[in-house]
Amino acid sequence: MPKNLAKVQKKISKKKGKALSSLHENSRDAKRLRRAGARSEKLDKLAAARGRASQPLLQRIAFFQSAAQESPETFTISDIQLLIEVYLSRDSSELSTLQSERRPGRPTSTREDTLKQLQDTEAKEYASGFWLPDMEDAETLARLKVWSGEWMNLNTMKFVRVKQDGTKDPSRFPPKGQS
Fold first, then answer.
1. Backbone angles phi, psi at 71, to 5 degrees
2. What span, in angstroms and rounded, lies between the C-alpha atoms of 55 and 151?
3. pLDDT tens digit string along 134-158?
4. What is the dihedral angle through the alpha carbons of 11, 16, 22, 25, rounded to the nearest 10 degrees?
5. Which pTM value belongs to this model?
6. Beta bridge partners of 131
7. What is residue 120's predicted lDDT score, i.e. its pLDDT?
8. Sequence-distant (≥ 6) Cβ neighbours of residue 121 within 8 angstroms
């Protein structure tokens, strides 16, 4: 039995003719249509949530891709650490302007709290291992330079976790905690 909304509608319209609106409210076909519609909505919500969850990682990789476009050769660990520090300080100017615009004694804005929390989270991640493409590997760097910005194309690259002390540990895609 089909579960896709379009397939259910097609199957019922073949059976009943063109008049889908003439179904009885509690008929089997109406229930099948409601179930298929609810399933379709649920799948759309899940896909949207998955897209929102992967967006920060895509933005991170896009930052390192733009840095890789400017460099013809692979990076050293010290170069990678400099890039990570630039990435971590990307919102510092906006945060300082929000703090300076706020009147004394007023609570912080939601945007300011969000930026502080994001910086703290990323600083903790950097201390324990910052997840990024392996920019020391020439093959991964070449793939990163031609990356189209889509989540599905990332599984061909090697990923690592670079710690603040300069150590590099292999990781996997997609990141799951401390992989």
1. -110, 130
2. 9
3. 999 899 999 999 999 888 888 889 9
4. -60
5. 0.76
6. 161
7. 93
8. none
Structural tokens at position 176: 């799951």
- Label residues 71-107 b or e (16+ Cβ within 10 Å = b): eeebbeeeebbebbeebbeebeeebeebeeeeeeeee
Q: Which two tokens stand for residue 90?
A: 């990307």
Instruction: Give the tens place of pLDDT for each residue, 9-31.
Output: 888 888 877 666 677 788 888 88
Rg of the Cα trace of the chain?
Answer: 24
Determine the Cα–Cα distance for residues 26 and 158; give it in Å rounded to an integer. Answer: 54
Rounded CA separation 68/134 (Å):
11
Other C-beta atoms lying within 10 Å of the C-beta of residue 67: 18
Tell me if residue 104 falls in helix, strand or coil.
Answer: coil
DSSP symbol at 7 = H
Q: How would DSSP label each residue in the chain?
A: ---SHHHHHHHHHHHH-S-GGGS-TTSHHHHHHHHHHHHHHHHHHHHHHHHHHHHHHHHHHHHHHHHHHH-SSPPPHHHHHHHHHHHHTTTHHHHHHHHHHSPTTPPPPHHHHHHHHHHHHHHHHHHH-EEEE-TTSHHHHHHHHT--S-GGGGGGS-EEEE-TTS-EEEE-SS--S--
